């Protein structure tokens, strides 16, 4: 475990303030949930990702969709790529999302890039190709995104719709869990 050198007091109501710099570096936004774990005498706080509860389903879905459309398919939560398939799987899986991806999720965007262009959905990875983006919204809250990426050929209309369908399937799967 890495020490931060930060010490905080717990107030009369049992609250603890997490410094703004730490929240910013860990991408913890106001209103987000944290999971609390106990390990012996240690209290561990972890960013809560509702998508983790459906990660197994997301992996199966992206593999199935990839077999049909033959493009790479990735699913993100609000922090990182949680499922990926296709030729870009190793390049994207587990990587943190960029500000662009985060903003697109928060705005509940659904869009397609039909002109070959440069894009970066995850930190440290830039590609040149086509893509379709669909936010995952469940119970009124944004929880992630589905992105279909093609390096070779443009995203067709039915493939764009498949990104939306997958985001709706994951949204429904989450609300059932």
List descriptors:
two-stranded antiparallel sheet, 177 residues, 5-stranded antiparallel beta sheet, single chain, alpha+beta, 7 strands, 5 helices
What's the arrangement of secondary structure elements?
Elements: H1 20-25, E1 34-39, E2 42-47, H2 55-69, E3 72-76, E4 81-85, H3 89-92, H4 99-106, E5 110-122, E6 125-138, E7 141-150, H5 157-176
Antiparallel strand pairs: 1-2, 3-4, 3-7, 5-6, 6-7
Helix pairs in contact: 2-5
Describe what this molecule looks like in 3D.
The strands form 2 sheets. A 5-stranded antiparallel β-sheet has the order 4-3-7-6-5, with helices on both faces. Strands 1-2 form a two-stranded antiparallel sheet. The mean pLDDT is 89. A hairpin with a 2-residue loop joins β6 and β7. α2 runs antiparallel to α5. Helices cover 30% and strands 33% of the residues. By secondary structure, it is α+β, with helices and mostly antiparallel strands.
Extended strand count: 7
Strands of the largest sheet, in order across it?
A: 4-3-7-6-5
Largest sheet: 5 strands, antiparallel
Encode the helix/strand succession as letters: HEEHEEHHEEEH
Terminal CA distance? 32 Å
Q: How much of the polypeptide forms β-strand, as a percent range?
A: 25-35%
Radius of gyration: 18 Å
* Overall pLDDT level: 89
Helix amount? 25-40%
Instruction: Please report the number of helical segments.
Output: 5
What is the 3D shape?
A: elongated
């Amino acid at each position: 475990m890495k020490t931060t050198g930060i010490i905080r007091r717990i107030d009369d109501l049992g609250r603890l303030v997490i410094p703004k710099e730490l929240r910013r570096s860990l991408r913890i936004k106001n209103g987000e949930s944290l999971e609390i774990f106990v390990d012996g005498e240690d209290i561990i706080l972890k960013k809560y990702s509702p998508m983790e509860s459906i990660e197994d389903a997301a992996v199966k879905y992206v593999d199935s969709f990839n077999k049909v459309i033959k493009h790479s398919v990735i699913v993100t939560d609000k922090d990182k790529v949680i499922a990926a398939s296709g030729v870009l799987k190793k390049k994207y899986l587990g990587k943190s999302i960029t500000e662009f991806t985060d903003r697109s999720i928060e705005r509940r965007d659904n869009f397609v890039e039909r002109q070959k262009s440069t894009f970066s959905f995850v930190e440290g990875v830039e590609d040149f190709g086509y893509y379709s983006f669909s936010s995952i919204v469940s119970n009124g809250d944004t929880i992630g995104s589905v992105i279909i990426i093609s390096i070779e050929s443009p995203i067709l209309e039915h493939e764009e719709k498949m990104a939306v369908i997958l985001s709706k399937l994951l949204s429904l799967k989450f609300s059932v869990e």
